[in-house]
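Intended use. Records like the one below are meant for learning the mapping from a protein sequence to its folded structure. Do not use them to infer anything beyond what is encoded.
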Amino acid sequence: MKTENRLFAIVMVSMFVFAAIYAYVTYLNENPAYGAPNRIEPVGTLALLFSGLLTGMVWLVFWVISRRIDPRPEDRADGEISDVSGEVGFFSPGSYWPLGLALTAVVSGIGVVYWLPWLMVAGAVALLFAVGGYLFEYYTGTRKLGPQ
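Structure written out for the chain above:
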């Protein structure tokens, strides 16, 4: 987690630096010919500041986690590629639920794009059913794992 910690810390600091530079440049480049005084452009400055704050929240999570767990092989200087070999996790080879998740996300997205509230609600309900099916795929039915 130290690698991710450093990455998000660098991005966070750079966002704050970019926000300061952006505010300074927009303050200098305001056109006083229209009688308006020099002002900082607020939308871009706030967008960069909020981007830095959001990145800072992710950095804080990674920082707290990196202090609680042992260093992973990619965090150690003497770590080898073979140290991380082995089983990563269980991935269902024959599941159709990811297709259902994608289709319900498309339906919800089309509802948002064309601003059809009924389609957004129908997509959200279908999305909940698809997430439930994907989550409980190996807890019910013929594919149930464990003693039966």
